[in-house]
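hiii, so i know i said id send this last week but things got crazy w the move. better late than never?? heres the sequnce for the chain we talked about at the cafe, plus the structure i predicted for it. fair warning i was half asleep when i ran it
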Amino acid sequence: MTGKIKLKRKSPKTQKHIEILKMIGTRAQFFRQQRDLTQEELAFRINKSKDTISNIERGSAGSTIETLIDLSEELKINMADLFDIPILNKINKGESDIIRKIIEIVSGKNDVDTLKSYLNVLEEMERVSGKEIKK
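okay and structure toks below
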């Protein structure tokens, strides 16, 4: 015996844990794409595997604070930017899934004209529904 005690996780991840990990992952992916980096390039730069980056971005695995620090430094963001999820506690799961999907769609677009087109469509939808978007 080496004297080490193995600790088991007392309970599985809750739905809230899963949602937060997915939102953090979506934000990490967004910032990586803004830096025009592939998962492989980012993994190499922070001395992690591509699978680690992929798991973080999909929200399928948690990450150590050290990895999040390295990720933030390489992406030139504040670590708090990964956790900036103010809407999470104010919406239900269905709304959260829809918002996450919108973020995934928009985060893959680096073209300003395309992003402006998306914004115009959303603004028009809000106008038609009687709710103006505040700028």
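btw The mean pLDDT is 80. thought thatd interest u
miss u guys!!
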